What does this fold into?
Amino acid sequence: MTQYRVLPGPEHFLPPSAASMGIYLPNPGEAHINGVIVPEEKAYEEAAKQFLMAKVPTLFPGPLVLWAWNEKAAKKATAIRHLYNTLKECVQPGQTPMLIPMPDYRPKYPKINPEVEINPNHPNLTIWHNKIDCCMFIGVHCHQANLSLKIIRGGTSCYTIAMCAQAGHEDAMLSFRDASVEKIMNLADAVKRLKGTVNPRLTSAKSGASN
Amino acid sequence: MSKERIKISEDLYDIMPSDYQDLVKSATYGKEDRGWKDIGNSKELIEQHSLCAGCPESMAFRYILASLPNPEDTVMVGSTGCTSLVFPMVAVHNIHSLFGNQNAIASGLKRALSVRFPGRTKDVVVLAGDGATVDIGLDMTLQAWFRQEKFTPICFDNELYANTGGQESGLMQKGFVAKMAPVGKLFDKVRLPEIARESGCHYVVQCTVSKPSLIEKVVRNAVMIAREIGPTYLQLYTPCILEIGKNSMEGLQEMRDSEKPTERFAYKEYISEPAKQLLAEVSAKDKEKKAAAKQLASQGA
It folds into this structure.
């Protein structure tokens, strides 16, 4: 059993992939928190808690939900909007939830506008610029999510959550698998349930992302 | 062919960056008579790019992307060079190949698309520089023509390796001295349009990109003929203004000077008999459509 734990960084410039450090993916009905397999219910609670603690909790929807390429994608987009609205309702003054899209994976040169989008090839720019301290990837193709999650862990102190439609992500600090509309709504319900019970990190000197 | 396949999820529409919203709202996907005149009236399929100010290649890119007859079902294959800096900004499916093997990639791609989408027209267009087309990738270029592969290679001919500082290329003119070729070219420019014709291409054009209407015509012809008959080839002069010592605003004049009848980029065209027949049929259909539209308009008035 590995002693390695997937924790907020900055880990270092080229962090190892969590899989290479012995972290493995959850089975259906499970999730992982920091690399430790847990029942999915526990992960909902933890993800909600992380969102409610964060100064800038942020959702990063990717192309698989931003583009209405089928009915399911459009429904997931509606659920994501619901989760975002729930976050806005449940946070305390001083916390600013954000919803920032990752429209595609093109390595945009010479620059991206970090206020309006995130790019998988340099996600740290958007995280630093908006001082995001907790984020969730959803609707991002796995290979691009893995790349981004590793860069974020390497260069920032942001807590990362992955709502993956496939088998989950070792490189996130918390990962669900088999994402569905129902699971997104479950997470929104967990946020509602924990409203007012979690103290945000507003005064912590170490809050926000490193830059 | 329509925008039906390019829709943003309604609930997340407001957070999409404006360039994506514009693509959905006003790009010319699915428009049958799209062409260079749409530039300025609709969202172009190229966003900001990182080519040099005044680079004729950027003009060529804009005209080609405005002229593709079927952009939503087109895959472009690029190669190493300045063009590879632009492809990330292009809203058409594209693949970056290794330096020189772009026509081999395109061959496999075109065949795979035909098998995977038998009922749908899928075009493949290769866009590479003269180094990739004539020097490093000549084998793959010729073999694709010999095999009668149904796609269109377009060569951006700037007559040297511009991206790496100005080395001699096969398409460089005889006697030219470049920054990294101080002796001067000892041999003639490779006559690739003639080689293309002899290798089985059904439509071959050599020209500059000084006239957008001409580029629209040749790109449409080349893609249509490649789709129905066999390989086509376009060689477009896109001078590297930095490497030939010109200023940003002098690219257009350089092309105009080089396309005069006695110059090396005088308009050159070859069309095979089957291709001529196809173009005549397409032209007749277009005329019919226009006449019908005119009649409808007059009835409406």
Q: What stands out?
A: The longest helix of chain A spans residues 71-90. Chain A touches chain B through 25 residues (CB under 8 Å).
